[in-house]
Amino acid sequence: MVPTAVGALFGAISTRLAVGDSDVFWHLVAGRATLATGLERVDRYSWTVQGHPVSVDQWLGQVLWATAYDAGEWRGVVALRALAVALLVGLIVYAALRERPGRPLTAVLAALPAILLTRFIWVERPELFGFVCFAGFIALVRAGRSGSDRALYAVPLLIAVWANLHGSFALGAVLALVVFADGAQAEVARRRVYIVAAAGAVIATLLTPAGLGTWTTPGFHLLHPPREIQEWSVPDVTTLPGVIFILVVFAVLVTGLFATRRSRADAVLLLPVLAVALIATRQLPLFAIAAAPYLAAHGGDAVTALASLLRVPLPALSRVTRQPGRRADAITLAIAVVLLAAAAAGGVRTTDLGGFPAASLAALRPGPGLLNQYDWGGYLIWAAPGTPVFVDGRLTPYLNGVLNDYTTVLGVHPGWRDVIARRGIRQILVRPNDPVAVRARDLGWPIRASSDTFVLIDVP
Amino acid sequence: MTKLGRWFGANAYPLAVSAAAFIVASGLPSGDSDTYWHLATARWSVDHGMLLRNDVFSSTVAGHPYGVGEWLGELVLYGAYVAGGWAGIAVLRGLLVAIAAFFITRIARSSGAPWFVTLPLVVAGLAIASITWTDRPQLWTFALFPALLELLLRVRAGRERLLLAVPPLFLLWANLHGGYALGLALVAIFAIEAALRRRGRLAAYLAGALILAAAATLIDPVPFDVGTTAREDAAAPPRFITEFLPPDVLTPPGALFALFILGAAAAAILRGGNLLDAGLLLPLLWLGLSAQRHMPFFVIAATPFIARWVADVVGARLARWARPAGGGPILAGILLIAALVAIPFAPSRPDERAYPAGAAAALRGGSGVLLNEFDWGGWLIWNVPERPVFVDGRYVPYLGGVFDDFREVVGLRPGWHEVLRRYDVAEVLIRPDRPLAVALREDGWRVRASSDRFVLLARP
Predict the structure, then answer these.
(1) Residue A259 and residue B262: Cβ atoms within 8 Å?
(2) Does B265 touch chain A (CB under 8 A)?
(3) Which residues make Cβ contacts (< 8 Å) with residue B17, sequence separation at least 6?
(4) Interface pTM (ipTM) of the complex?
(5) Which of A220, A234, A419 to substitute to test the interface with B, most B CBs within 10 Å?
(6) What is the side-by-side strand order in the sheet with A427-430?
(7) Which whole number is the average pLDDT over B33-62?
(8) CA separation for the pair A124, A182 (Å, rounded)
(9) B102, B14 in Cβ contact below 8 A?
(10) Does the reported pTM lie above 0.90?
């Protein structure tokens, strides 16, 4: 009941957030193309890598977003996002509550930092589904380590779906191997279950259109994060996400220091996730999600021990002794569905295009030759299909030199004019304070359209 | 056996590590840009018989007041230079690193863990800290922090008389480097921990030492200047300086730092700890994650904590290795002799590969306002004093106007022409891949000197 209610609440809150992630657009285009003509294994949207192979590791996530859009346009996207957020939050709370069934308040408090931190990934991209899967994975693995064979067997099924939704499945697969290996070593009687689940988890990762290739993108991104993209930047504890993250780390450390019950299983699950979270800002929520059940299970114990050490009397907290029945669960679920539906119906209906060059579309020349801001590539794929892009948020296809050329021109680095000539760049759509825009104005190049957001320049 | 002999025998292990650290650290050439302006500041003070309180090195903030709080650290550095040239500076660096290594090893040993557990941790900690082995007053904080921590640990263990050394230590430290603020925080942590554990007498002694230490820090030419700067550095790190960037765990020092974080988390979850562990680890972890130059402080505090856990895990299995075979003093003696032998081999020249040494002659022959790379400002102040700099590593005097203008012009942002005009820039010495260098070449500025690393351009 509690996870459903909390999930629905935050799902409803998410409907108030604008749609406007720069990547949502190309995911929608790819998803619609997949629905229309099947998987797109080569690029069709750029003029720099057209015909080159592209990753299909998020095809199912893209199809889900495209289906939502086709069903209700942006309102459909908002509704799907709300549903995913509700699922994500609900699973986080569920995993925490499962550890302390009699302490819903403790569970919600333990889950709260994770919920707050996931706010930064409530985006209209397959990545959101990846986080939902991760929260489900944590719940399953903890249940499995507590004795549920069914939960362990469900892990490969989850990973099979996850691997088709988003590249973060790789973390789940690696974690599954680590946790199951530890389980097999610690629980001899259940060794066979752990081995079967581990083998299943590995095989599940290959049940994708990309086969073994599924592993290339997540592995590359993890070890070579594109730091110039904000979400892949080094975690910074002086920013809001960083502050929430470090508070979770502090909570885990204090809980560990003072809790009286200890389990190697906790360390085996938490430490690899902490290592991954330290790599990039976008991965910070992972640790908070993994830590929520641990904090729920041991946080109260640690607070009691600490209070005893400091001789501070603690007020007696009441324990919920009567679990809600199925009827209460059904009523809560119905209310949650109504709440989500109502919120989605009354939520945002359009995209926030404030950061995109919408006013430039009419002036864009069709055909190849446009050099565009990286952040606007996805939007242009969606809004100006007649003008293929130079680069966009798919990133990986452009690592073969295109991104270097883009950086050279955008930053007016040595050889920038050579790149323009070699590539045949005919028009440039960038921000007014980008060096190439400043330089083009210096040189008197024709400005075809401009605003505070963008400038569209003709290359003479 | 004499008292000295007994002390030597008891400290053979820390002395051996210390001597080895000296050999490594003193064998490195100077190379930090800030070393030069620290030396120039001290030289000015010696030449004029007074502290330098206003800028005399730049064209942009000439006459503006700037901090003199590190005056003693700068004078010691300059004294080493006068005594032995660049080799003297290398020896001073070696000594400070050796002091740090000695106390870090003693702190690690205080955990009770055997040497084969503590030694890898100490070596890893020193490897992380090696990014801060630059010839600047901050090296004093690297040496004095572990010295103070070891002293406080001994005080906590019953050697309360050692607190008498605390106020004089802070009198010295406050005039050497702004990191003394961290030292005050350390004493406060121990005082609070003692008070919370109701160790009344110890808490009172520590509080008294803290008050006297804080008072001692006021005996400084500008009592609140350095502490204020240090606080601002911690609260709002200047991210445009590499050492103030958050640690990237995909770099070698960052990866080692992450291992310490994971080790501390594992030790907390699997072994637990006490109030002091929490008091030390939490704030120092935040500090370490806030900027890579602060990583060593967390590592120093975490070393005994992790060592205790590792000793629990492997200690029983490797108990026979726990005691050195009696060769410790001999090894320490050999290493100490080797350290003495290494002194004459200290590098007598700085490593100037990162600087525009090839432009020095052309610079001396030029005139007018020079706009220079931020990283080269210190080098120019020392090597080409006849050409005042635009910006340099002192950075604080330039914050706001000058630094914003600098970034605007070298990044070729809108208004770059106006910045050049307003400052009446006659020559520009920057990296050749800067957009400004490209634009000025295109606009006909004369190349007076150039290499792969720099280009000196003069207004046509």
Answers:
(1) no
(2) yes
(3) B101, B102, B104, B105, B119, B122, B123
(4) 0.93
(5) A234
(6) A370-372, A427-430, A455-458, A447-450
(7) 95
(8) 36
(9) yes
(10) yes
